[in-house]
TrEMBL record:
It catalyses: L-lysyl(4)-[histone H3] + 3 S-adenosyl-L-methionine = N(6),N(6),N(6)-trimethyl-L-lysyl(4)-[histone H3] + 3 S-adenosyl-L-homocysteine + 3 H(+); L-lysyl-[protein] + S-adenosyl-L-methionine = N(6)-methyl-L-lysyl-[protein] + S-adenosyl-L-homocysteine + H(+). GO terms for cellular component: cytosol; nucleus. This is [histone H3]-lysine(4) N-trimethyltransferase. It comes from Hymenochirus boettgeri. InterPro entries: H3K4_H4K5_MeTrfase, SET_dom, SET_dom_sf, SMYD2_SET, TPR-like_helical_dom_sf, Znf_MYND. It is an enzyme of class 2 (transferase).
């Protein structure tokens, strides 16, 4: 099992280990693929996707015992049994009270795989799971408490089918999963599941990445979104790149325990546009701008929490009120305005208010194209959502244009032969 050609693991100055190119890679070229070491389909997508291969289709067959897992066919069901059996009888016993988090589920599968594994897997050509950083020594009390809650849930839901190590080892493994886990998303960036991709986890972060990670079923694909020369390090992005430098730095420090020193963070070149202030005859003071940024960051966090217990109409009201307040100081292209518009658009899509969703999407797309790097999945997915909304509302000409803009980005990011692109092209033909 050799390593992919044109790449090597190396010690990256100030960043620890990393991945480096040993040859040229062209824009859109596939650098490497990585099958998931362990993965789990999110509960909300059950019945829409196969648990084993993540294929999206109608008429999937359900597990005869728990009636909760769905498969393409007998082959997929057999392929998944080693992992599904960890949950099957437990789901039958607990019924609706079966509620481990996705982190607990993926960790249970990782532990089960490590018990049976005798040699390095095809997912570990550059980096093994055992080498993952845990940053356990850097966790605050709140994060440590969350890990203890996850360990308790693991014992509660998996004790019959999984024999695990002592508490200290479990703490370490959960911390590794929290730092190195990936979320698998579809072409509209809807959450499909969680996975561990060791080789992908080797890549360091940059806010001006030269590769992008997309998914084909349960396999990660890494493609160049800039030309890469021999000797250059391969960088991906760990976070959403919409936000200004201070915000990105806080997110990276909180989740990954480092400070980014990329060109974008050093120059803060995009920050003025991302934090654009309204041009008023009586301009706001620098203190009121700072206060509004603080308010905006708080409302983003509050909304994230509110999603778990408020109704769609209550959530939409939070969006509208915050947009109204921020709009007294911020331009509509300001990233905090865009964030709340994006949340509002999501609620409109959920409640099938297509006109409302379109109204927000039309305001978002132009500034998105400016704030994000070229070939961004966020921009592609927004063009896709807009195109599908236009088509559904019988506005075919503009719908076709939007879908074609999505395809142009996706051909670089996903590769021209990806089934998502074939699906969008089929929509165009119809």
């Amino acid at each position: 099992m050799g390593q992919p050609e044109g790449l090597e693991r190396f010690d990256s100055q100030g960043k620890g280990r990393g991945l480096r190119a040993t040859r040229h890679f062209a824009l859109g070229e596939l650098l490497f693929t990585c099958p998931a070491y362990s993965y789990v389909l999110t509960v909300n997508e059950r019945g829409n996707h196969c648990e084993y291969c993540f294929t999206r289709k109608e008429g999937l067959s359900k597990c005869g015992k728990c009636k909760q897992a769905f498969y393409c066919n007998v082959e997929c069901q057999k392929g998944d049994w080693l992992m599904h059996k960890l949950e099957c009888s437990s789901m039958c016993s607990y019924g609706e009270k079966w509620s481990p988090s996705e982190t607990v589920r993926i960790t249970a599968r990782l532990l089960a795989k490590q018990k049976t594994q005798t040699e390095r897997s095809a997912s570990e050509r550059f980096l093994s799971v055992k080498e993952f950083e845990s940053h356990l020594d850097k966790l605050d009390n709140e994060k440590k408490e969350l890990i203890q809650n996850d360990i308790a849930a693991l014992h509660h839901f998996y004790s019959k089918n999984l024999h695990y190590s002592d508490n200290a080892t479990l703490e370490f493994v959960f911390a590794q999963v929290n730092c190195n886990g990936f979320t698998i998303e579809d072409e509209e960036l809807s959450h499909l599941g969680s996975a561990i991709f060791p080789d992908v986890a080797l890549m360091n972060h940059s806010c001006c990445p030269n590769v992008i990670v997309t998914y084909k079923g349960t396999t990660a694909e890494v493609r160049a979104v800039q030309k890469i020369n021999p000797g250059e390090e391969v960088f991906t992005s760990y976070i959403d790149l919409l936000y200004p430098t201070e915000d990105r730095q806080d997110r990276l420090l909180d989740s990954y325990f480092f400070t980014c020193d990329c060109k974008e963070c050093a120059t803060k070149q995009k920050d003025p546009a991302k934090l654009e202030i309204r041009k008023l005859s009586d301009p706001p003071s620098s203190q009121s701008v700072r206060d509004m940024i603080k308010y905006a960051r708080n409302v983003v966090e509050e909304f994230r929490r509110a999603k778990h217990y408020k109704t769609p109409s209550e959530l939409l009201e939070i969006c509208e009120l915050s947009l109204d307040k921020m709009g007294s100081v911020f331009e509509e292209s300001n990233v905090y305005m865009l964030h709340m518009m994006y949340q509002a658009m999501g609620i409109c899509l959920y409640t099938q208010d297509w006109e409302g969703a379109l109204k927000y999407g039309e305001k978002i797309i132009k500034p998105y194209s400016k704030h994000y790097p070229p070939y961004s999945l966020n921009v592609a997915s927004m063009w896709l959502k807009l195109g599908r909304l236009y088509m559904g509302l019988e506005r075919k000409t503009i719908g076709i244009k939007s879908l074609k803009k999505a395809i142009a980005i996706m051909e670089i990011a996903h590769g021209a032969d990806h089934h998502y692109i074939a699906e969008v092209k089929k929509e165009l033909e119809q």
